[in-house]
Amino acid sequence: MEISVVDITGKDTGRKVKLSETVFGAESNNHVVYLDVKHYLANQRQGTHKSKERAEITGSTRKIKKQKGTGTARAGSIKSGVFRGGGRIFGPRPRNYSFKLNKNLRKVARRTALSQKAKDQDIIILADFNFETPKTKEFKNVLSSLELKNKKSLFVFGETNKNVYLSSRNVNGVNIVNDCKINTYEVMNANKVVILESALGQIENNLTK
User: Fold this and answer.
1) pLDDT digits over 136-168, tens only?
2) Do 31 and 62 reside in the same domain of the chain?
3) Domain containing 172 — which CATH number?
């Protein structure tokens, strides 16, 4: 599959790059994509939720009424979860939601995600560019030229581009990553994936090893 390279003004540069069939033409595997997205989202969770249970509530442990003869259920303490102000029954505790996922399986998921984007013609190959100083206005002009305004987009750079990154921080729906940090969730979540020309070779290399 060949795709034209465009510049930041949206014009065709006259160059074409050939996308690897292994990375951008892989067979669809939706279950693997689901597992990798689940793995990514689980790793984002802090897991710091906590509620006080019966043993952690400050209060008297006196038996609040006699065991029998009241016509209601027995109750041993005001800290019981059935009373207002009592501890929560089986409340959440801090935990780690992350789980292990095989590295090769993650590569299959990323190849599937990129292949789906290529099939839907949602991949743009962009000629390398940089800004002399961080300017959000200049980055918004790039988005307008590529018809990405008000669309979720993922920019993949070959190396850290500080000025471009700083220029994009205040723009909603835009995410910038290096080629080594590309992940299935961000690819699937974006309307368009913009890959810089210098990053393409490294992406194909990382996902075919």
Assistant:
1) 999 999 999 999 988 999 999 988 788 999 999
2) no
3) 3.40.1370.10
Cα-flanking dihedrals φ and ψ of residue 110, to 5°? -70, -35
**What is the C-alpha to C-alpha distance for residues 205 and 17, in angstroms, rounded to an integer?**
15
Q: Compute the average pLDDT of residues 53-74.
A: 92
Residue in the block written with tokens 């009241």? 70
Which residue is it, tokens 């979860």? 81
* pLDDT tens-digit readout, 94-118: 999 999 999 999 999 999 999 999 9
Q: Give the pLDDT of residue 167.
A: 92
Q: Maximum Cα–Cα distance for the chain, whole Å?
A: 92
CB neighbours of residue 135 within 10 Å? 14
Same domain, 74 and 174: no
Contact present, 98 and 42 (Cβ < 8 Å): yes
Would you give the DSSP letter of residue 53? Answer: -
Residues in the chain: 209
The whole-model pTM stands at 0.82
Tokens of residue 10, six digits? 């949206």
Distance CA 31, CA 47 (A): 25
